[in-house]
Amino acid sequence: MNPTARWGLLGLAFAVSACSVLESDKVDYKSATKAPTLEVPPDLTQLSQDSRYTVPGGAVSAAAFEAGKATSKSEAQSKTAIAQIADVRIERDGDRRWLVVDRPADKLWEPVREFWQENGFNLVIEQPELGIMETDWAENRAKIPQDFIRSTIGKVFDSLYSTGERDKFRTRFERTPTGGTEIYITHRGMEEVYASSTKDSTVWQPRKPDPELEAEFLRRLMVKLGVSQEQAKAVAAAPELKAPAAQLANVNGTPIVRLNEGFDRAWRRVGLALDRTGFTVEDRNRNEGLYFVRYVAPNPDKKEPGFFGKIFGSSDAAPPLKYRIRVHAENEGNTTVSVLNETGAPETSANAERILKVLVEDLR
Questions:
Q1: Are 124 and 47 contacting, i.e. CB atoms less than 8 angstroms apart?
Q2: Which of 158, 159, 188 is CA-nearest to residue 274?
Q3: Where are the alpha helices (DSSP H) in the chain?
Q4: What does the alpha-carbon distance between residue 186 and residue 168 come to, in Å, rounded to a whole number?
Q5: In this structure, are residues 64 and 287 in contact, taking their beta carbons and an 8 Å threshold?
Q6: H helix or E strand, kind and range, residue 243
Q7: Residues 39, 125: contact at Cβ < 8 Å?
Q8: Banded pLDDT at 152 (limits 50, 70, 90)
Q9: Please, what is the Cα angle at 185 between 180 and 191, to 5 degrees?
Q10: How many whole angstroms separate alpha carbon 32 and alpha carbon 333?
């Protein structure tokens, strides 16, 4: 079909359905198998599947988690909304939600894996040793109007219909001191936009993470884990608590982020921000307040659209640099976030400031 006919058909379809409105919480994902594969932006590199890194038992063991968590238990209880059904509960801190399940992580891995597949996703990262799984980029087909033309010819010309948006989700498992598991789901989105005013080509660029999409999949995961639909809807509607602002500052030439909250809450928020913004966390050490990440600096000689640059991989990309994101408790109610280099020394380069700017945008 030539482009003129294709756009004419699409125009007719959307004209017929102009008055139809979809429910905002309706999701129906289908993995993008024919569209170009979306990769991570060049400044946020992907971790190769590697068995060198081990989870729980070392720096991220239950004992280490408990040591840090016990000191701020009252803070977490006072600032976090909690709703529980059976052995599954949902906790909320600002626009961030997560599940706490009274089951070991190894018993939850397969049900969560099945959950994503049942919801229309393929998994491109499965790392039980790190407690991380990640979906591929997929399209929410529920955003396409289901009008008469769509229902009649959609199955034949399905490729004509596209939302121009793609989503992917990362699931992270954290073990608790009592033998249970915290499950975090974070969203990343891309959208297709015109590259110029002539509208003769398009590029993909990042769009903001959607906390409501994260909440919807947490609710659905609760149902998968045994909670009824009605109960899951009720507990997912926990009241929102406003998260404190994050401020970018500079101390003696070193960029930092200041958070007006204790370590336990700051550690959780920074971890979620790293997931949402696409950083690859190779390892983490909660006792020392460290996330070990990989980063590819943007090439200033390339004209790359948007803050994150192009999303398609290239063979001449610069090798990733290794950094440590340090979460440090200044006192009971204040925490700082800084970037250290691979040896553990404070990083003062432009890369450190770029990394913290990415994080602070999500922490605000």
A1: no
A2: 188
A3: 3-16, 62-70, 73-79, 105-118, 148-153, 211-224, 229-236, 263-276, 350-363
A4: 8
A5: yes
A6: none
A7: no
A8: low
A9: 175
A10: 45
Centre a 10 Å sphere on the Cβ of residue 255 and count the other Cβ atoms it contains. 23
Say if residue 136's pLDDT is above 70: yes
| Residue type at position 64 | A
DSSP conformation letters of 7-64? HHHHHHHHHHTTT----TT---EEE-SSSPPP---TTSPPPP--SS---SSSTTSHHH
C-beta separation of 109 from 101 below 8 A: no
Q: Give this prediction's pTM.
A: 0.63
Determine contact, residues 181/104, Cβ cutoff 8 Å.
yes
- Of 79, 212, 91, nearest to 140 by C-alpha is 212
Q: How far is residue 114's CA from residue 137's CA, in Å, rounded to a whole number?
A: 17
Q: Which two tokens stand for residue 26?
A: 């309706």
| Three-state secondary-structure class, residue 190 | strand
Chain-centroid distance, C-alpha 174: 15
Residue 228, amino acid = S
